[in-house]
Amino acid sequence: MDTLDWTAKWADYTPEKIAITSYDANKSYTYSDLHIYANRLINKFIELNLEEGDRIAILAEHSLEYIVLFVACQRMGLVIVPLNYRLSVNEISKLILDCTPRLFIENENHYDKAEQLPLQNIKKISFKDLEYFFHNSENTSEKAFKIKEDNPLFIFYTSGTTGTPKGVIYTNKMMFWNSLNTSMQLGITFRDSTINTLPPYHTSGWHIFVTPLLHKGAHIGMLEKFDAEKILCLLELNKTTLFMALPTMLLMMQKTAIFKEVDLKKLRYIISGGEKVPSELVSYWKNEKNIHIRPGYGLTEAGPSITSLHHKMAELKPNSIGKPNFYLDLKIVNKNGEIVKTNEVGELCIKGNIVTPGYWNNSVKTSSKIKKGWLFTGDFAYYDEEGFLYMKGRKNDMYISGGENIYPQEIEVQLELIKGIKKAVVLSVKDEKWGECGMAFVTTESDTLSVVQIREYLKENLVAFKHPKHLFILDEIPLTSLGKVSRKKLYHYFNTIKSQQ
């Protein structure tokens, strides 16, 4: 039995234990089911002449079938390319042309979009076909495969909020060491359970809890779309112990009518990240539900379990992303590559088995980001005197105005301290006088807070050169499909306003 084939091992140890439950389809697969169905799918893939290294592009939401597909692909050495089904036909077409899949799999609700994609000479099947293979295949023979740790398992295309999407290669080795990091930080065992609402085209939809819990023989609930009230009910009903949610999702949950009524005593931790986790959010869940939110940091190119803030420090170290996890090295360097001092800002770099070998079809980008085994993340950070990490924002976000380095996240923190402001986002734009300047977008709790009042507060609390030149009050901050801030839409909004002036 292959040491990386966790499903086969648990199918042998605890064959009747429920591994995956779909709350949309009201169906469950045991570990034995996962093992058997994956082998049946492998036989079908062999009939389709698929070979190690071939890519399979998938246009579908997360589901039971997707998990079986994952097990089968890992055993055969096939590469899963989860496509973002929320993208336009043109955007998805570019990804398909880049990864050149041998097989395309679609869910029924994406047929119309799939028909417009460049799939000539590419084999196609549906998720309905997959389910048929699982239950009706006559070929039930098991093949012996050696899972190679350096084999690519996924290609994750980055969201593209700041540029053209790049295909990040994710290997079996990365998955194994990420699972260890996650399990050790949170004490995960076979008794744990989670509900995954994150999409399959993002690394967090697989490697925050799905693959670590498969490694531990635990239970994974699946919900295709995030529904705040439904999630709260399911967390209570299933006595879920671990949950991952972006700050935006948690805010939506705490605003539901049932938030204070649901019993979430079994929920040991909520992991949050993907964007800044406000200290007020951490305190609110602790005070109202006695639930610990553990902020952390990760990215598609590594982990994604890179740092974690212990729950006992969450209120003592507000806005920190914690300390590095076990099996990796971190350093923070200045522009000359020298390690910075305490409280000095520099670029965060990561080294270890959780780092990607590179970008698909992009050796230039790979060599610019990975140097002597170190991944240069493009994120600015610093250590405090006790070794806790704090983010200062993306390297690409930092801008120079009148010769001064300005970090948007610092301004966002100050804006969100203003009573009445719910959310603040700061971006940079070109400026004739200063080279670059800041523009801030905020949402407020009422109509009484004005731009003039916000600027008056900044005068008292932020040095003048850091003040955003442009300031907009919005009804809501536009988000991407994953719940992150959509910079593209904010820039579009700004350019529209400027063109009308």
Automatic annotation (TrEMBL):
<dbReference type="InterPro" id="IPR050237">
    <property type="entry name" value="ATP-dep_AMP-bd_enzyme"/>
</dbReference>
<feature type="domain" description="AMP-binding enzyme C-terminal">
    <location>
        <begin position="410"/>
        <end position="484"/>
    </location>
</feature>
<dbReference type="InterPro" id="IPR042099">
    <property type="entry name" value="ANL_N_sf"/>
</dbReference>
<dbReference type="Pfam" id="PF13193">
    <property type="entry name" value="AMP-binding_C"/>
</dbReference>
<dbReference type="InterPro" id="IPR045851">
    <property type="entry name" value="AMP-bd_C_sf"/>
</dbReference>
<protein>
    <submittedName>
        <fullName>Class I adenylate-forming enzyme family protein</fullName>
    </submittedName>
</protein>
<dbReference type="Pfam" id="PF00501">
    <property type="entry name" value="AMP-binding"/>
</dbReference>
<dbReference type="InterPro" id="IPR020845">
    <property type="entry name" value="AMP-binding_CS"/>
</dbReference>
<dbReference type="InterPro" id="IPR025110">
    <property type="entry name" value="AMP-bd_C"/>
</dbReference>
<dbReference type="InterPro" id="IPR000873">
    <property type="entry name" value="AMP-dep_synth/lig_dom"/>
</dbReference>
<feature type="domain" description="AMP-dependent synthetase/ligase">
    <location>
        <begin position="9"/>
        <end position="360"/>
    </location>
</feature>
